[in-house]
């Protein structure tokens, strides 16, 4: 298994990538999406019973309706340093578990720990987390070697963020790493952040 990730500035582009991954044969249980909820996506539709059940005990609450597969199970959770996010999939459950563990004295890890534990290089995990903090959407998939080339093509489409360029942009503004202790951006700040 290989873990592949892509950051999107536009939530709809991320949704399209999730749909394409599922259509290419990647099981929805191996795909995750985490999006900044600065636009209150969680309030767009009513709760989904399936997502509430999936999120029970993991800190995922009210949810967004939507398409079938993974997107039907989007839930809302809070990630330190990011604030509220809409999320679904194994990465969301891992991050929520890390946050819950930290709340009761366990080891902290949150989104960075969840990403690095899944094989994402720490340097990239910090950019992904900061990208979510600034209003973006992260799609992460665990794929077999057989499905990896097609999943890489899907996630590498022109609508995804060039991670190295985004890192350079952040660093040019003095950013060094994602800080889970930093206050979350207010909705109007998250929408404006590069």
TrEMBL record:
Compositional bias segments (type: Polar residues): 26-37
Region described as Disordered: spans on this chain: 21-54
Domain General stress protein 17M-like: 6-71
InterPro entries, per the entry: GSP17M-like_dom, Low_temp-induced_all0457
Organism, as annotated: Aquamicrobium soli
Name this polypeptide is given: General stress protein
């Amino acid at each position: 298994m290989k873990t592949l990730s892509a950051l999107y500035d536009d939530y709809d582009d991320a949704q399209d990538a999730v749909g394409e991954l599922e259509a290419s044969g990647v099981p929805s249980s191996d795909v995750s999406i985490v999006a900044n909820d600065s636009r209150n996506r969680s309030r767009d539709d009513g709760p989904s019973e399936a997502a509430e059940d999936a999120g029970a005990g993991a800190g995922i609450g009210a949810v967004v309706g939507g398409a079938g597969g993974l997107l039907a199970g989007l839930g809302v959770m809070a990630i330190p340093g990011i604030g509220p996010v809409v999320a679904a999939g194994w990465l969301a459950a891992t991050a929520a578990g890390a946050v819950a563990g930290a709340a009761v004295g366990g080891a902290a890890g949150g989104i960075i720990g969840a990403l690095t534990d899944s094989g994402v290089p720490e340097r990239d995990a910090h950019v992904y987390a900061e990208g979510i903090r600034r209003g973006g959407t992260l799609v992460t998939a665990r794929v077999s070697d057989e499905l990896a080339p097609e999943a890489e093509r899907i996630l590498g489409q022109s609508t995804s963020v060039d991670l190295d360029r985004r890192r350079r942009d952040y660093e040019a503004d003095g950013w060094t790493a994602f800080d889970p202790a930093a206050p979350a951006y207010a909705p109007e700040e998250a929408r404006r952040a590069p």
